[in-house]
Amino acid sequence: MSTKQARELRELDTPALQLRLQDAQNDLIGVRFGLATRQTENTARLRDAKRQIARIITLLAEREQEI
Questions:
Q1: Is the pLDDT of residue 1 over 60?
Q2: Distance (Å, rounded) from C-alpha 4 to C-alpha 63?
Q3: Please, are residues 24 and 49 in contact by the beta-carbon 8 Å criterion?
Q4: Do the beta carbons of residue 55 and residue 9 sit within 8 Å?
Q5: Which of 28, 42, 43, 48 ranks highest by number of CB atoms within 10 Å?
Q6: Does residue 55 carry a pLDDT above 80?
């Protein structure tokens, strides 16, 4: 993960991260739909969306373990 993205996500509080997770999941659905209907040519967006979701889930899990 680039340092800018990592820093940005780590600075957010937990409710904001959960909102980001919902947005990322909705984006993933949109990307999958676009690929299925051949409206999206950039197939790398699928991988990027999945990785973004994984980053956020990892940060949320780390915060749960701290408690």
A1: no
A2: 20
A3: yes
A4: yes
A5: 28
A6: yes
DSSP string, 10-34: HHS-HHHHHHHHHHHHHHHHHHHHH
**Residues 6 or more apart from 25 whose CB is under 8 A from it?**
53
Q: Which residues contact 21 (CB under 8 A, 6 or more apart)?
A: 53, 56, 57, 60
Give this prediction's pTM. 0.86
Residue type, 56: I
Where does residue 11 rank: exposed (0-12), middle (13-18), buried (19+ CB within 10 A)?
exposed
Tell me the average pLDDT of the chain: 91
DSSP state of 12: S
